[in-house]
Amino acid sequence: MAKRFPEGFLWGGATAANQLEGGYNLGGKGLSTADMIPFIPKDERDGDNAVHITSEQFEEAFKEDSKKLYPKRWGVDFYHHYKEDIALFGEMGFKTFRLSISWARIFPNGDDLHPNEEGLQFYDNIFEELAKYNIEPLVTLSHYEMPAALVKKYNGWIDRKVINMFTKYAETVFKRYRNKVKYWLTFNEINAIALAPYNGGGLITDRFENIEQAIYQALHHQFIASATAVKLCREIIPNAKVGCMLARLETYPETCNPLDVLKTLKQEQMNFFYTDVQVRGYYPNFIKEYFRENNINIIMEETDEDTLLQNRVDYISFSYYMSLVESAGPHGERAPGNLFSGLKNPYLESSDWGWQIDAVGLRVTLNKLYDRYQVPLFVVENGLGAIDTPDDNGMIQDDYRINYLREHIVQMREAISDGVELMGYTSWGPIDIISVSTSEVSKRYGFIYVDIDDHGNGSFKRTKKKSFEWYKEVINSNGQVL
Fold this sequence. Notes:
By secondary structure, the chain is of the alpha/beta class. The chain has helices at 17-20, 55-60, 78-92, 103-106, 117-132, 148-154, 161-176, 197-201, 211-236, 258-280, 285-293, 304-310, 359-373, 399-417, 466-476, and strands spanning 10-14, 96-100, 136-142, 183-187, 241-247, 251-253, 315-319, 324-326, 334-335, 342-343, 349-350, 356-357, 377-381, 422-428, 448-450, 462-464. The radius of gyration is 21 Å and the shape is globular. The two termini are 18 Å apart. The model has no long low-confidence stretch (mean pLDDT 94).
């Protein structure tokens, strides 16, 4: 089989409204859960506390006189720069641009009777701008940014009423953009709720006696909301494709000790559980056994199982940044990752943030996913967060980013040669954005540098990095320059 990318391969970049847009209090937008997460200086961070907030911190974030910094409120000001930014994406030759719609920009309180017209028009403007450059939008309905009012009033996704509110939001945007958007995703990294319940489900942990029970109940509501959105989309936009989105955790056993292998198998099952439900349409036996062993009781309505089975997604999208190592024993140094962590792999190098760089693991994960599900795949997040320092001429010579991306794209091409059906690739953060986990901008991913620091100071001027021209050549050659 020839080692090449298929015609029509969807090259592009991926973002999230809460990390990109800014304009948190403009155009009728309400506060989102992401707007409430404060910046935590590096020397004050304690593991993953940057994505966990307490009830006290949540209430503090509503105060207009709060002295804390909330970087996701300003993002990189795409709200005012979207024409300039989309023109740069067009110059690179993007075939697709992954973005999310901020639910709080459409329904500021989540349970409003009517949508916010200014918010709807904002995304109309974006889609029309993308169309000028023949860029297909790939839209995520929920990307860590539910209306904060739904946390205040309903405790987030733990309340089944939120399904109806999400369904109303989904139906509103499907009808509004039926002629502008044909690729959709429901929930971003739906498995993130397990380790970051506030980010993933609006769950503030100190409000629950049994947080694991709350997580899986809220997750069930998201599964039903996702399936209902799939049903609606097929009715409203029959030619559309709707996918799910998984934070993929490719995991290796530390040794060939059968106990390490078994522990790794169990870890992988827990990662695949989310796609099992959304692609196969039912809860697998291993998760039912896990629930039984841990006294987790999922409350379902009579029609829920049928809803899941009848409304399965069309494709699987996923993020891939690094691989993990698992061991049956407690030994070994741990390596951080995107909300998740594992043992340090001695065969791999690490990024500035300690994430293990493993391009071959992407080929492995593509094969595993395709073997398991036999549906099209889409890599919608992959990239290198790094400290970018302009040289004397103001340029970013980011060969380290080029090398990272090249190695991963080569492995995607190898996976296609293995027989994997791959729809496209959107690198994470084609322009510098605010980090989801640390709310800092100094962890930069983009092909485009934004002059802004972690405290929101700067001109917000956009500058092309060296990787800009490189990615442009990759796209224009459909991956042949590699």
